Q: What sequence folds into this?
């Protein structure tokens, strides 16, 4: 199911959080409402970790990750890196990478199997994405925008892309990613999908300005209505740790 | 100003209707084009045109950005508040820039716009978000909206020290009293030039008086007969004793100094430390919220002073 939330007075929840099938990162410094919205949905299932990256709260746009790994920019401090390594499940490889384009969340859109990458990423970074995240990497643009991580959000079950994506591009991307895609908006017409939405295979969080129509599109393309966390977690039970302190 | 020409403010909208691509209609409502020169740091002068537009639903994201910290860190129904502002098209203005390159683009865009059947308005200013917004909202008319209720609570909570003032405010904000109060909202980006500010306020007060005659129903006409205006704003104050006894104040918006002089009631409130954003050149100053009530009979005096106040370069 999809939930509408706010970070302070901002509807850009995808900027202040990062949700995957194995963990959830949340920015520190927001109100308790924001944190508890994630906790209430996810606490029994996956760890919800409060963190900063490079001392900032815009963690959703700086890091890229899935159930296999988490990539952090070079601006991440050692303490933050250690904190994340300690808090996340052992199966998740946490790696800090040296890439000039440090807003990895804006440059990379990924699910557990495939990733779209900014066309100007280093070759080494591309290899690291493939290794750490365990995905196949495709360099693409979305509706002419190179910031694929900002204008598209994908899970293992579906994806939402920039509203001006043409039908041909949608078909092409859908074939590459092997998931159904829909062009749409979030937060009452905002085209920056990833800023307003964060999603995994069974739940999604979007900004409170999101209209009922947008919400129903999100729930249908990501197949959230039928999804129950227990089904997915049972598959992943071995890779999740038992107790979280 | 270096290298600038003083261009007279464009005359009546009726004369400009064909050029602006507006349909001819009888309403006094307008789109004014007021050219202003903004002086940048280097010695070259950049000509920037600001357009004054009626609020429309498409401005939602830009206006929301301007109003995001209207009540500071407080979580409240900002979106609802923005909707109220954008829904009131007869009183209220949104300022957008019309870029210099717009001149060349205009021809092509107008052709496209004409072909797709849209007005010239949407073609030009679409991409550049609002730089400023100004409006006056009747607290009685909109009193049932969640955002206005939250706003009233915020004001009453803030005014906890002086019980007399709190009583006065309570009378103003609740029941019948609220119908006479207009919430005057003016938010703009920090680096917005001062030249358009006076026309902005002129436009607002003109619109309010036109609305008292032009609105379709008596109820609506009466809703714009404000007896007083309520203003929420920010200032910087220092506790350091300078030569005078007064605490020295730095006004984020220059017109607040005039409002403060003319107001019938005002109080300041410390902001929680998290909300303090003090620029380095204002070290020793504290950012504070300032609340003012200005009687509408003082508006003509305000308009006069504002004109001369802002002309001093």
A:
């Amino acid at each position: 199911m999809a939930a509408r939330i706010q970070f302070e007075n901002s509807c850009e929840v995808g900027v202040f959080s990062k949700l995957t099938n194995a963990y959830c990162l949340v920015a520190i410094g927001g109100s308790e409402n924001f944190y508890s919205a994630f906790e209430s949905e996810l606490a029994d299932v996956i760890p919800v970790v409060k963190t900063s990256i490079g001392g900032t709260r815009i963690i959703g746009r700086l890091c890229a990750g899935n159930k296999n790994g988490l990539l952090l920019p070079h601006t991440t401090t050692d303490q933050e890196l250690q904190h994340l390594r300690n808090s996340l499940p052992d199966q998740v490889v946490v790696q800090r990478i040296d890439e000039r384009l440090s807003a990895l969340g804006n440059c990379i859109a990924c699910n557990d199997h495939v990733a779209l990458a900014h066309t100007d990423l280093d070759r080494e970074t591309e290899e690291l994405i493939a290794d750490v995240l365990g995905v196949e990497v495709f360099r693409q643009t979305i509706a002419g925008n190179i910031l694929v991580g900002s204008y598209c959000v994908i899970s293992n079950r579906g994806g939402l892309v920039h509203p001006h994506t043409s039908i041909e591009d949608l078909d092409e991307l859908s074939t590459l990613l092997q998931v159904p895609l829909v062009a749409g908006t979030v937060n009452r017409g905002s085209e920056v999908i990833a800023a307003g939405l964060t999603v995994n295979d069974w739940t999604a969080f979007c900004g409170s300005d999101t209209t009922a129509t947008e919400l129903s599109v999100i729930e249908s393309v990501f197949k959230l209505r039928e999804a129950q966390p227990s089904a997915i977690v049972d598959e992943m039970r071995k890779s999740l740790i038992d107790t979280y302190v | 100003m270096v290298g600038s020409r003083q261009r007279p403010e464009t005359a009546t909208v009726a004369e400009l209707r064909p050029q602006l691509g507006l349909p001819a209609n009888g309403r006094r409502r307008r789109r004014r084009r007021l050219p202003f020169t903004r002086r940048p740091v280097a010695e070259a002068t950049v000509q920037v045109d600001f357009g004054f537009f009626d609020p429309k639903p498409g401005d939602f994201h830009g206006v929301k950005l301007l109003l995001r910290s209207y009540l500071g860190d407080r979580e409240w129904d900002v979106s609802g508040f923005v909707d109220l502002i954008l829904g009131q098209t007869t009183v209220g203005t949104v300022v957008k820039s019309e870029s210099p390159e717009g001149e060349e683009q205009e021809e092509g865009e107008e052709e496209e716009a004409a072909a797709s059947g849209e007005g010239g308005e949407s073609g030009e200013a679409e991409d550049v978000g609002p730089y400023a917004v100004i409006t006056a909202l009747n607290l009685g008319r909109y009193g049932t909206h969640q955002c206005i209720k939250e706003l009233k609570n915020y004001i009453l909570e803030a005014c906890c020290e002086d019980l007399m003032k709190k009583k006065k405010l309570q009378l103003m904000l609740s029941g019948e009293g609220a119908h006479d109060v207009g919430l005057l909202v003016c938010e703009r980006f920090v680096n917005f030039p001062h030249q358009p500010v006076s026309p902005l306020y002129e436009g607002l007060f003109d619109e309010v008086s036109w609305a008292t005659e032009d609105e379709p129903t008596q109820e609506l006409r009466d809703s714009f007969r404000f007896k007083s205006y309520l203003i929420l704003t920010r200032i910087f104050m220092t506790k350091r004793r300078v030569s005078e006894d007064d605490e020295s104040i730095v006004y984020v918006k220059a017109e607040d100094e005039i409002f403060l002089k003319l107001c019938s009631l005002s109080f300041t409130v410390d902001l929680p430390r998290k909300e303090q954003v003090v620029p380095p050149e204002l070290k020793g100053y504290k950012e504070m919220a300032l609340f003012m009530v200005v009687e509408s009979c003082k508006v003509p005096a305000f308009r006069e002073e504002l004109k001369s106040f802002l002309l001093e370069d």
